[in-house]
Inverse folding.
């Protein structure tokens, strides 16, 4: 019989309530839980559960991507056995998970990653070394977000975690990334006109189907909006 895994896509705190058990395809031999953390212009976390193929190249790894004002970190954990990913959430909680070494974490230009107050992250048990990688791209010409411009926007990644943030530079719009319904806000924050016009590189954010922007402070989260993409 086929492997069964829990499937889910949404906020971490809703996983146990809304995850569903489904059969996997024949060539999928592992269950997975993937946590996508977005920081920068947008902030939020999205948990994705499902089936996975061979684990060696895909599982128990962390992938990072930094492009202009958005940084994403995707941590993927896998397990073997039917429905084994029920409580599997890749978060750095030393009390509930067995981790390896702790490393300083930074994804950005050298000046920003050279201080003494960098955040740290726990590696999984199979990772026992910290690494430093330097990559030069055309994007390194646009790393300064600018000064605060007076606009303030709501920022949250689930209905239970609302906050606000001050926008900077050319970020003159408040933005909501909307899911499959108007009240399903995947995440939100500040944005540029370019992002709101759909000219920004599209990040792979699970559940994001369209973008809603507005130009007044704290106008997002279902209030009066101007742009729909």
């Amino acid at each position: 019989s086929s492997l069964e895994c829990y499937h889910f896509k949404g906020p971490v705190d809703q996983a146990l309530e809304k995850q569903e058990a489904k059969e996997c395809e024949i060539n999928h031999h592992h269950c997975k839980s993937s946590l996508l953390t977005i920081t920068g212009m947008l902030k939020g976390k999205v948990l994705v559960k499902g089936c996975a193929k061979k684990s060696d190249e895909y599982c128990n790894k962390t992938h990072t991507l930094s492009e202009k004002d958005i940084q994403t970190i995707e941590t993927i954990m896998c397990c073997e056995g039917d429905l084994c990913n029920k409580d599997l959430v890749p978060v750095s909680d030393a009390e509930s998970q067995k981790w390896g070494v702790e490393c300083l974490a930074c994804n950005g230009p050298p000046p920003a990653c050279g201080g003494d107050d960098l955040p740290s992250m726990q590696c999984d048990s199979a990772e026992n070394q910290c690494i430093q990688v330097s990559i030069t791209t055309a994007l390194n010409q646009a790393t300064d977000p600018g000064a605060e411009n007076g606009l303030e926007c709501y920022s949250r990644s689930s209905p239970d975690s609302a906050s606000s943030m001050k926008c900077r530079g050319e970020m003159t719009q408040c933005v909501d990334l909307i899911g499959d319904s108007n009240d399903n806000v995947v995440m939100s924050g500040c944005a540029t006109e370019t992002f709101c016009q759909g000219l920004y590189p599209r990040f792979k954010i699970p559940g994001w189907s369209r973008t809603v922007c507005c130009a007044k402070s704290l106008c997002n989260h279902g209030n009066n909006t101007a742009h729909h993409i």
